[in-house]
């Protein structure tokens, strides 16, 4: 692993926490401490806020082309440093190196995408219907932002928020997850090298999220919150934003249905299942959580999926040939094991996996469960692990009712060879995104987000920058 940055990044400078506190960063493959990083407190948050506020006016006046070129340079630097960023990510988060390299490319693409969107911010003009006034519409940055990112995609979730903020002309404070601060600090270093002015991006690593974030959200100077994480934490943050009416974007939890109809191409469906379930070891909000498979093909689908899952190699992400790395920590692994045990107690059959291995590290084997009772806890909980739970269904109306019977609505997957059915079912799912005969929906050029308790707003795509812009309407009398 390359030398890591381990201080706070405030006002363009690398600084220790004001009280000198540090926190450990663990390797989930071994349980050993990789390093210590600065553990920010409220004073550090105030300093970061002041830096962002002071930089906002000048940054908002910066030419769109200048903002675009900074993002483009950062994109190129990320691509040049793919291997070192991938090793850093694998060390702190656990995913296999091949997958980490894929995330680096995915993360970089957000900067390239928003470098192109930065020069396409426009407004409008026209005469109002009464003929008395001309209407001039302009767009301007919403102002200083607080960006809170999760641990499961530590680089990509940073670029997905930072990219549009930079493009729109917003300054920001980034608070990464305490489990994975190193990727975010490396990203700050890259942006500084790419020419980002001091104070535009500030990175505050902390284990004291409540002490750091709540005063920022209630203080009135932060005008935008972009959060990716659990629905429970999202609710708390929404309440904290209420007093000062902070604009919010929320990418929250999911409970994705994966529907396989009787006419599905099972080879395609199993391929899709492997992507939708096993990307990032199942630690993804887009992960397929509930597998609804038509009764006539459920046995064959389960057999094929178990065969593919059982062939995956589990081990440290840095080891050659490894397909599945460790889960993020012991708490995450214990949760997965408890959900599997509950399903088995309720009658589920274990087709493969299902046992916590001995030895160091937070590993859990790829697992397929068949004949899962609908009342099992894992039907109402985001599993966040390599477990595929299969239930059967008999008709379209039934599976739609069951698929939509959840407070979450991020993504769904549908497999059928009938175009009419595929479109009909996709449009009937109460989700923000659908993969039709594919297990991968994430793309920087597409709007990412959900409905119901899976979130507010969209990230990525042509609309991603809208979350960081306000409209101003100017009325000019017609003379």
From TrEMBL:
GO biological process: gamma-aminobutyric acid catabolic process
CDD domains on file: ALDH_F5_SSADH_GabD (cd07103)
UniProt cross-references to Pfam families, sorted A to Z: Aldedh (PF00171)
Active-site residues, record numbering mapped to chain: 251
Annotated keywords: Oxidoreductase
InterPro entries per the UniProt record, alphabetical: Ald_DH/histidinol_DH, Ald_DH_C, Ald_DH_CS_GLU, Ald_DH_N, Aldehyde_DH_dom, Aldehyde_DH_Superfamily
GO function terms (MF aspect): succinate-semialdehyde dehydrogenase (NAD+) activity
Aldehyde dehydrogenase domain span: 14-472
Family: Belongs to the aldehyde dehydrogenase family.
Descriptive protein name: NAD-dependent succinate-semialdehyde dehydrogenase
């Amino acid at each position: 692993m390359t030398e890591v940055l381990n201080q706070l990044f405030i006002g363009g400078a690398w600084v220790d926490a004001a009280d000198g506190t540090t926190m450990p960063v663990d390797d989930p493959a071994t349980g050993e401490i990789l390093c210590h990083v600065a553990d920010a407190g409220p004073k550090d948050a105030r300093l970061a806020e002041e830096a962002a506020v002071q930089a906002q006016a000048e940054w908002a006046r910066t030419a769109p082309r200048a903002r675009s070129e900074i993002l483009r340079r950062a994109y190129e630097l990320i691509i040049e440093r793919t291997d070192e960023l991938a090793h850093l990510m694998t060390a702190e988060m656990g995913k296999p190196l091949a997958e980490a390299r894929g995330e680096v490319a995915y993360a970089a693409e957000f900067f390239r995408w928003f470098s192109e969107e930065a020069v396409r911010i426009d407004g409008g003009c026209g005469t109002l219907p009464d003929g008395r006034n001309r209407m001039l519409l302009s767009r301007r940055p919403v102002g200083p932002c607080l960006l809170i990112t999760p641990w499961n995609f530590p680089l990509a979730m940073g670029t997905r928020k930072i990219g549009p903020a930079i493009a729109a002309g917003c300054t920001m404070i980034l608070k990464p997850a305490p489990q994975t601060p190193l990727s975010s600090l490396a990203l700050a270093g890259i942006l500084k090298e790419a020419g980002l002015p001091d104070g535009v991006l500030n990175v505050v690593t902390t284990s004291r999220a409540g002490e750091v974030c709540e005063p920022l959200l209630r203080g009135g100077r932060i005008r935008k919150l972009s959060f990716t994480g659990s629905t429970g934490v999202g609710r708390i943050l929404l309440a904290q934003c209420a007093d000062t009416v902070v604009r919010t974007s929320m990418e929250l939890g999911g409970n994705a249905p994966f529907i396989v109809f009787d006419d599905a191409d099972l080879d395609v469906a199993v391929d899709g299942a492997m992507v939708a379930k096993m990307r990032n070891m199942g630690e993804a909000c887009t992960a397929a959580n509930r597998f609804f498979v038509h009764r006539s093909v459920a046995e064959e689908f389960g057999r094929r999926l178990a065969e593919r899952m059982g062939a995956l190699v589990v081990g440290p992400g840095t080891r050659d040939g490894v397909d599945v790395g460790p889960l993020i920590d012991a708490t995450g692994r214990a949760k997965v094991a408890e959900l599997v045990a509950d399903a088995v107690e309720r009658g589920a059959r274990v087709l493969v996996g299902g046992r916590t291995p001995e030895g160091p590290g937070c590993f859990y084997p790829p697992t397929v469960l068949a004949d899962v009772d609908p009342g099992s806890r894992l039907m109402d909980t985001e599993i966040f692990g390599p477990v595929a739970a299969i239930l059967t269904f008999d008709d379209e109306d039934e599976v739609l009712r069951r698929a939509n019977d959840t407070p979450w609505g991020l993504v769904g997957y549908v497999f059928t060879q009938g175009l009419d059915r595929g479109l009909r079912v996709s449009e009937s799912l109460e989700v923000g995104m659908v993969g039709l005969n594919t297990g991968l929906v994430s793309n920087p050029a597409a709007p990412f987000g959900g409905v119901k308790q899976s979130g507010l707003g969209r990230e990525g795509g042509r609309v991603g920058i809208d979350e960081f812009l306000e409209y101003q309407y100017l009325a000019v009398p017609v003379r």
